[in-house]
Amino acid sequence: MSIALPMPPERDGWPRIPVSTASQPAALRWLCDDDLPWLRALYASTREAELVGVPWPAGMRDTFLDQQFAAQHLHYVSAFADADFLAVCAGVTPLGRLYLRRTPPLHLLIDISLFPHARGRGLGATLIAAVQDNARMQACGVELHVLQSNSSAQRLYRRHGFDVVATEAPYVRMTWSPERLPTPQGVN
């Protein structure tokens, strides 16, 4: 796998916060070029259901996934060079990624992806809450795009106070405002 653009450098300002859940200890760290192989595996895991019925030989599937991951990575690091590219890890074990652009007045939640073994344990909800808390501290809202076909992600975002503001096929654009949720206990 050849990736032409490296990971953007670490930026100042992201609080070093744990994002653990009751069943999943985790923390955030900056991504680096050494993470690209597991990021490619993570990307492939997000496409598994979509590719189940495609009658390609394994080599063709791998080539397709390599090309698609490279295209996505190049788009993200060139279009969002000012974003935070974070690994979600349990110790040194990667669980997923969080890509976030923190610019007023709306932070852009570019991507949250978790490996299958880390899904369904509250970690995605914890990451969303961490993004919202960070935005709230800066008096900002949060915006994201989710595939129209990803109804489970849309339900998760709605539970966290996101509203659909537009349909931009094949995506739904959703936003959250800090006024929608109460300030967490002990935070002023």
From TrEMBL:
Its EC number is 2.3.1.-. GO terms for molecular function: acyltransferase activity. PROSITE patterns: GNAT. Keywords: Acyltransferase, Transferase. It is an enzyme of class 2 (transferase). It comes from the Bacteria. The keyword Acyltransferase applies. The keyword Transferase applies. Residues 26-179 form the N-acetyltransferase domain. This is N-acetyltransferase. It comes from Luteimonas flava. The lineage of its organism: Bacteria, Pseudomonadati, Pseudomonadota, Gammaproteobacteria, Lysobacterales.
